[in-house]
What does this fold into?
Amino acid sequence: MSNSKTNKARLTLAALGVLVVGALVGGGVTAATLLGGDDSKSGKASPAPTTAKPSPTSGGQQAAMTPDKARKLVLEKPTGQKEGLSVGFSKGPVGAISTAVYFWEEYAFLDDQKARQQLGAIVSPDASGYVDDQVSEVRKLREQVGLPPSGGTPAGITFSTTVNAVRATSLAGTDGKVVQIWMNYDRYATKADGSPDGDPFKDQDSDLLLKWQDGAWKITNEPQYWKKRSFAHSYFPDAHASWLDGWQQVRHAD
It folds into this structure.
């Protein structure tokens, strides 16, 4: 994180009592970094084939198709809660996507104790040291915005994360038991007085690797899968190229 952005976050804490999300999660320490991802929109490699390719249509229709025009993927409803996370998703690709989206929207990225609790429930036991690494990143992030290294979100401040679209890729052949989920998301803060933050953190990308293990989707960073990661093209809701790349908008079930 640059000094200017760090200072901006600290000034905001002192003067307004709220963390400006754009400053908080911008620069060298990002929400993606906390989970081993990369939210940079430059220099991305060509994507690998996605789990679900857009179906062929006539030339005119295909050229006009965009994520915004395509049918949204309806997420599964969770069947329960465990350690502050929604759980109970199916083994299929929609279950994997739902797991990733719910986790990312619920992750306590600024509370080291709650983050450890959540990560302990969803990280694969095969990802040795992963939980400790991510909790360490949360603590570094807290220090960079002028907070004690350990603790919760400042009193009266709330954050909400909304995943707009996803791009799913199988990393284990055709069985779909290990997948990479790219997510495009926005993050907002609400101040202690109930007013919204004027500088929300919008249009960001992050990815997770998930594998089906012990009846649930688990986050992993195992080298044999990590080396197979692909990098999505930038997501634009009205771009034909984004649709061809496999980006699909999501919505929560009613």
Q: What stands out?
A: Residues 1-58 have pLDDT under 50 and may be disordered. Residues 57 and 197 are 43 Å apart (CA to CA). The chain has nine helices and eight strands.
